[in-house]
Amino acid sequence: MDNDRVAADALRSYVQDIMRAHGADEEQVLCVSENMIWNNLVNRRNYGVRRLPIQMKRLRLGLLRAPCHPSFEPASPSMERLDGDAGFGQYVAELGMRRAIALAREAGVGIVAVRNSNYFGTGAYMVHLAAAAGMAGIVMSNAFPKVVPHGGIKPVFGTNPLAFGVPRRDGKSLLFDMATAALAGSKVRDHLRTGKPLPEGLAIDTEGKPITDPARVGEGALLPLGGAKGYGLALMVEVLSGVITGAGVSFGVASMFGDFTRSADIGHFLMALDISRLMPLATYFERLDQLEQILADSAPDGQVRLPGMVRWQYYGDYLANGIPLDRQARSDLEELSSPYAIATPW
To answer: How far apart are CA 331 and CA 319, in angstroms?
Structure first.
């Protein structure tokens, strides 16, 4: 094994040992580690093991509950509420999505409205769960506010991710996952690490002037993606995942990196739709194949690709050849494991 790549199974076991040593319960250990490794495998590094240090800090402070005792409350034959009991968001959201899938098996559509949760990784992981079950999935989550509404200069929304996924014939789900901000918060941290300035049009200061220094983004706010359109999408996410779930709204959500006095109280909206209720899956795949061919024919060969296809290319490479971990990521993980004499997998 070279110094830059780590086998997925070895990294998963290492993360699990770290989580156990820091007091996480086994059920959440297995779920959260799988979520993180999947995100690393599809090259969503900022949502993989890089998040372990901050989540272990919040666990040590009692802001992530382990074990937690999430509870479902029926709202209708196809809808349920889920109180996440301040557990790891990856765990709570997966419970919610698997329940939405089960509801959709019974009623055609399943919706779970989640409150009292925490940071949940990527929406892509959650909609892939639905797609793997032969369903369409839609997932939204609110977050700590750092995005202004269109025309405003004070942050109101989080980056408020929105994800959509459907199954494909080869099992490589179509995965669309976006922040409704002009820039995801993780990308700001990338610019901080590399020292690269931000392009204008992504962030503003308290007077509405552009910010290009990533270190100053915390003094101001991010802009919504596409102006009024991104504002509308962020508002939709806040209503569906915050207002109607009973979770924190806007500043009712605590910052993962900046507030160590309370749990985040993030809300999620999770929906699964059973495609087979509308048509046989064989027919659906034929029709999706036709659409994919139309898209491919719309430009020179290879120019148009479906959302998520690049992720599956990374997945195949990293599963076979190991997950790349930069020096900082390895150092951060070593800092978590060394007090407990946990051997590194590199």
So the answer is: 22
pLDDT band at 79 (very low <50, low <70, confident <90, very high): very high
Confidence band for 196, pLDDT divided at 50, 70 and 90: confident
Q: Give residues with Cβ within 8 angstroms of 292, minimum separation 6.
A: 306
Q: Is the pLDDT of residue 218 over 70?
A: yes
For position 253, what pLDDT does the model report?
98
- Whether residue 157 contacts residue 147, with contact meaning beta carbons closer than 8 Å, is answered with yes
Beta-bridged to residue 166, according to DSSP, are 174
Question: CA dihedral defined by 214, 219, 225, 229, rounded to 10 degrees?
Answer: -170
Contacts of 254 (CB under 8 A, 6+ apart): 144, 248, 261, 262, 263, 264, 265
Nearest to 67 by CA among 129, 120, 20: 20
Strands 266-274 and 71-76: unpaired
Stated length of the chain: 346
List pLDDT tens digits, range 144-165.
999 999 999 999 999 999 999 9
In the chain, DSSP finds a helix count (H) and a strand count (E) of 10, 11
Q: What is the DSSP letter of 219?
A: G
Q: What is the dihedral of CA 270, 274, 275, 279, to 10 degrees?
A: -160
For residue 73, the cross-strand partners are: 81
Share of the chain above pLDDT 70, in %: 99
213/198 Cα distance (integer angstroms): 6
d(CA 58, CA 210): 33
**Are 202 and 224 within 8 A, CB to CB?**
no
Q: H/E element holding 237?
A: helix 228-238
**pTM of the predicted protein model:** 0.94
In 168-299 the beta strands, taken as DSSP E runs, fall at: 174-178, 203-204, 221-222, 266-274
**Dihedral (Cα; 114, 252, 177, 132), 10-degree rounding:** -10
